[in-house]
Design goal:
Length: 82
């Protein structure tokens, strides 16, 4: 039972992560490119780029996106959320 809970916990996004994920999807649809870190930082009211990097890392770890290091705006959406 505890194992199933940990699996679900890994797959579920927190409300802030969901807000960021939906922003990425909407931005991509509107602009056909992913937002810059500064745009994400401003939208999410995060004070530093490292905070953005950390949030994107969690969303990637949960399997919703894929990032490509050393490439600007290189994020691919892997899952859709209702």
């Amino acid at each position: 039972m505890a194992n199933n809970y940990r699996r679900l916990e890994k797959e579920m996004l927190t409300p802030r992560q969901l807000k960021l994920f939906k922003y990425l999807v909407a931005y991509k649809k509107k602009h056909e490119i992913m937002p810059k870190f500064d745009e994400i930082r401003e939208y999410m009211s995060i004070k530093s780029k490292s905070g953005v990097y950390q949030m994107l890392g969690y969303i990637e770890w949960k399997g919703y996106i894929k990032r490509y290091p050393a490439h600007a705006r290189a994020i691919t959406i892997l899952k859709e959320v209702a």
